[in-house]
Amino acid sequence: MIADPAAMSAWSEAARAQGEHVALVPTMGALHKGHLSLLAEARHRAQRVVLSIFVNPMQFGPQEDLAKYPRDLAGDLAKAASVGCDLAFVPEAASMYGPGFQTAIDVREVSQGLCGARRPGHFVGVATVVCKFFNIVRPHVAFFGEKDFQQLAVIRRMVTDLNLPVEIIGLPTVREPDGLALSSRNAYLAPPDRQRAAALHAGLSAAKTLAEKGECRASVLLEVATTEIVGRVERIDYLEIRAADDLKPLETIDRPAVMLVAAFVGRTRLIDNLRIG
Ligand code: AMP
Q1: pLDDT, tens digit (0-9, with 9 covering 90-100), for 180-194
Q2: Following DSSP, what letter does each residue of 4-54 receive, concatenated?
Q3: Which residues are catalytic?
Q4: How far apart (Å, rounded) are the C-alpha atoms in residues 108 and 105?
Q5: Is 159 in the pocket of ligand 1 (CB under 6 A)?
Q6: Residue ranges of domains in the chain, CATH in brackets
Q7: Is the distance from the beta carbon of residue 181 to the nearest atom of ligand 1 less than 6 Å?
Q8: Could you identify the atom of ligand 1 that is nearest to the CA of residue 31?
Q9: Is 173 in the pocket of ligand 1 (CB under 6 A)?
Q10: Are 122 and 65 in contact (CB under 8 A)?
Q11: Tens digits of per-residue pLDDT, 72-94?
């Protein structure tokens, strides 16, 4: 494990000097099988696999769960080693945001709406920290989950716009048998809430099935999903259909699309999405 950013860069430079490809899997820890699927794919594609674990204060709002976000460093290191990860980079917040820190990356359009509307500043925090990780770790390739679909779109846009020399690979969402997307925040769910949480995927799936039968009106697909979800969750935060590439809103499914949902189950806010059309 390395905590010091300068030591991390030196490690990476040494690997690069030997002609090795370096892969990065950025996470906030509390690893589950979704994270491990990213590490396993990274293992296939690069000689060196770096996992970063950092609960990034810059992407949490003042009322959010920064202090109580689940942490399990020892467990994470064991799980990462079990899938062949070479190194965990676990910096302190003080070494990522030193005195006088004041720079932020704003991926303006893709960050709008959806989680960007509900969590002001969230994607600025994500883009900034991911860019910092790219500069510190200098990976050839980095892996992200489609589970956080808007985040992946923000990172792809940032990499293109800023000419960052890293390949971005997005991987499918790993789910529980009942469809619930694995998430570190699922640990917050009490047993009855855990059962109801499957409603999100059930709603998305119902819409996808209808779309596969030829329904292309977004309003109809959203209604089907809403009917499935509402009543089983405390509150739907958003439920929308967007274009899969640039996340522009769609009224008709005439190009690859994605349905995205955020909802409160008990007091836990969960997100999920499914490609349709
Ligand atoms: P997090 O630790 O929640 O910030 O997630 C770290 C990375 O793991 C992000 O790229 C997520 O999109 C990805 N990830 C989280 N949950 C899943 C999942 N269920 N399946 C696949 N990837 C995931």
Answers
A1: 999 999 999 999 999
A2: -HHHHHHHHHHHHHTT--EEEEEE-SS--HHHHHHHHHHHHH-SEEEEEE-
A3: 35
A4: 9
A5: no
A6: 5-171 (3.40.50.620), 184-269 (3.30.1300.10)
A7: yes
A8: 2
A9: yes
A10: no
A11: 999 999 999 999 999 999 999 99
